[in-house]
Design brief:
Layout: H1 5-35, E1 41-55, E2 60-73, E3 78-86, E4 90-99, E5 106-107, E6 111-117, E7 120-134, E8 140-149, E9 157-159, E10 166-176, E11 179-186, E12 193-200, E13 205-215, H2 226-229, E14 232-242, E15 245-248, H3 253-263, H4 275-282, H5 288-302, E16 304-305, H6 320-326, E17 328-329, H7 331-344, E18 348-354, E19 373-380, E20 383-387, E21 407-412, E22 415-420, E23 430-440, E24 443-452, H8 454-465, H9 469-479, E25 486-494, E26 503-512, E27 515-518, E28 521-524, E29 545-546, E30 551-560, E31 565-569, E32 574-578, E33 581-590, E34 593-602, E35 606-607, H10 612-626, E36 630-634
Parallel strand pairs: 1-10, 16-17, 23-30
Antiparallel strand pairs: 1-2, 2-8, 3-7, 4-5, 4-8, 6-7, 9-14, 10-13, 11-14, 12-13, 14-15, 18-19, 18-21, 19-20, 21-22, 23-24, 24-26, 25-26, 27-28, 28-36, 29-35, 30-34, 31-36, 32-33, 33-34
Length: 636
């Protein structure tokens, strides 16, 4: 029996609809593949809704997040992973997916585990990863999940960008009248974001809706921090009212400190257990600086840093005596130990909250998002000394780049002190290299001395002291620049165990591949290091390029002209002066010697986007000079 014509017609229409949908998806995919050639997937029709709710059963204020998204494949045979983060104050309620020939959404199981980032293990931070297979360009997978935050203090921010490009996105905040919430908008400039506000009188709530299109993928490397550049909203939940009673959460800086301070009461532990060690460390020391250094450096050297984020322990320091016994702690525990050891020694030391340079906020914003770190402040002789024991080999009154200039909140009983860590000039990071060479056949023979200060020194000391002794020589050879063209005959290091002095590396070298002989002419390359030769900025980069530190590198090379030769040619000088960087290279002949000097200076440690064109031209000029050679000619 034949099927009714209307059923055949419906089936035919469904096939047409499916084919048309696939064609539209493929055309859309091709469009975005051209726009984002390096990306596997683009997100389309993303909807995120955040609703503040009163949990009657638990009698607490919660935030529920509902996320719906479609992933559009831009490449063939893609296995896409989507991650949801949660912790002791949040939970994933449900997760569903729909892809390929599925008629309706189905639950999807994620692979869940503790979260680890850059070698740091966060015991309370969890991650669930969900996998999707997209075989063809234009394939679409739908992913939906619901997440709930049970303590609104920890619901601090919503970022608009994603690791993938976003075609269309909508973010909705539903705030009932019984809750006081401030939505602080940041980094909207330059992005296609529209905002609307409406009322739902039936539910007695205000609705804020943000729509956006063509969002770039986040994750560009060497930026100052996502909070500095990507559009996002800080969600400041200040209070709520239930049964006629108002409960204040964190509505201003005073209340932020009050909550922080409540978590740092009674964390000294049994400080009498610290006294024998403190007495031993300060014995024979006559000055305050010597005593403070002895305590501070001991903690740096003997307490292993392990990040531990576990509910309130993410903000509450471990007791000082416990950190001492365990010989490990997180930043809060280590700061607490330094504080209490200094107090045992008779000094005024305070716990101090701080956000590292990756965070864009200061303490005018009452949010847990303002800081991510804890240090200790020593008040001595009318001066504040900021002690960060997680920064191994950082001397007293010297500060790592990541905390320089950052605002701090220092404990002060029922009140607090707001201050800033000093910003140090680039001279702190001075690296000076001095080399003396002579030509022997097709080699350069001579010696080199490199003096390291600041950030580079601290990093090198850390790697040297955390390398097995059997491999330490290989590391030091690498520091000296050893490669297949270099033979190190002798290597000496000074001040490996004294963080208060510069690190000095001396070596006696033979350099192959730096001298070429053609008939009566000898070509000599005086710069085998060639700093920044490949540091050009990509044209499609969106943000400033942030280096790991401020840069001040100075190099001096002296070449003795061999007997029977004269100098036929030396390369031109290079003198580039930009407000944000300078590159100076000079050659000079004097008394039978050639002097090569080079200085590279980046005072802020940032190559600004506005300077990319000038910077790339400077690097081209520098590389051209690097490829030039001194020419020596035999005399008749």
């Amino acid at each position: 029996m034949s099927k009714p014509k209307y059923l055949v017609g419906q089936a035919f229409l469904l096939v047409l609809f499916f084919v048309a949908s696939q064609a539209i998806a493929q055309n859309e995919a091709q469009t975005y593949k051209q726009k984002y050639p390096k990306e596997e997937v683009a997100l389309k029709d993303v909807s995120q809704t955040y609703t503040w709710l009163w949990d009657k059963k638990q009698k607490q204020l919660i935030v529920e997040e509902r996320n719906e998204e479609k992933m559009l494949s831009l490449q063939l045979n893609q296995k896409i992973k989507r991650a949801i983060f949660y912790d002791g104050n949040s939970a994933i309620i449900s997760a569903e997916h729909k892809q390929n020939d599925m008629k309706k959404p189905a639950e999807i199981a994620g692979v869940c585990a503790n979260y680890e980032s850059e070698g740091i293990f966060y015991s309370d931070a969890m991650i669930c990863v969900y996998s999707f297979n997209l075989s063809m360009i234009g394939n679409v997978a739908e992913f939906t999940y619901t997440k709930r935050t049970s303590d609104v203090k920890y619901f601090t921010s919503v970022y608009f960008t994603d690791g993938y490009p976003v075609i269309n996105k909508k973010i909705v905040f539903q705030i009932p009248d019984f809750v006081e919430v401030e939505l602080k908008e940041l980094n909207f400039e330059g992005f296609k974001i529209q905002k609307s506000k409406s009322r739902n009188e039936r539910e007695k709530m205000t609705i804020y809706e943000y729509t956006m299109t063509d969002l770039m993928p986040s994750g560009e490397g060497n930026i100052k921090g996502g909070s500095h550049v990507y559009p996002h909203i800080l969600t400041l939940t200040k209070s709520y009212t239930q049964d006629g009673s108002k409960t204040t959460l964190i509505s201003n800086t005073d209340e932020l400190y009050r909550w922080y301070s409540s978590l740092t009461k009674d964390v000294a532990g049994n400080t009498s257990e610290l006294k024998p060690l403190v007495d031993k460390l300060v014995a024979g020391k006559t000055s305050d600086a010597e005593k403070v250094k002895a305590i501070y450096y001991w903690v740096q050297d003997n307490i292993r840093y392990i990040a531990f984020e576990d509910g309130l322990a993410g903000f509450r320091p471990a007791k000082a005596d416990l950190v001492y016994k365990n010989k490990y702690g997180d930043c809060k525990g280590m700061a607490n130990l330094v504080k209490n050891m200094l107090k045992v020694a008779g000094y005024d030391a305070r716990l101090t909250w701080i956000g590292t340079s990756r965070i864009a906020y200061d303490y005018s914003i009452p949010s847990l998002a303002v800081d991510n770190h804890m240090i200790c402040t020593l008040l001595l002789g009318g001066k504040q000394y900021f002690l960060d024991p997680t920064e191994r080999y950082c001397p007293l009154d010297d500060y790592a780049e990541r905390i320089q200039g950052r605002p701090v909140m220092i404990e002060n009983g029922d009140k607090y002190i707001l201050s800033n860590v000093p910003t140090l000039k680039q001279e702190r990071n001075l690296v000076e290299t001095e080399q003396n060479f002579q030509v022997e056949g097709e080699k350069l023979i001579g010696n080199s001395q490199a003096i390291y200060n600041g950030e580079k020194k601290g990093n090198l000391l850390y790697y040297v002291h955390h390398t097995e002794k059997t491999s330490r020589q290989d590391l030091l050879n690498a520091v000296a620049g050893k490669d297949k063209n270099m033979t190190i005959k002798k290597l000496e290091t000074l001040n490996l165990d004294d963080r208060d002095k510069p690190l000095i590396v001396k070596s006696e070298l033979e350099l192959a591949n730096q001298v070429s002989i053609f008939d009566n002419e000898t070509y000599v390359d005086l710069d085998w290091n060639k700093e920044f030769a490949d540091y050009k900025m990509e044209k499609d980069r969106h943000f400033d390029y942030v280096l790991s530190s401020k840069i001040l590198n100075k190099t001096k090379v002296k070449l003795k002209v061999p007997q029977g030769y004269k100098v036929k040619y030396v390369p031109n000088t290079l003198n580039i002066n930009n407000p944000n960087f300078t590159i100076k290279v000079n050659f000079e002949q004097k008394n039978g010697e050639i002097f090569y000097t080079k200085e590279i200076s980046i005072p802020e440690g940032i190559i600004k986007k506005q300077d990319f064109e000038a910077w790339n031209k400077a690097i081209d000029d520098l590389k051209k000079l690097y490829n030039d050679r001194v020419i020596l000619e035999k005399t008749k």
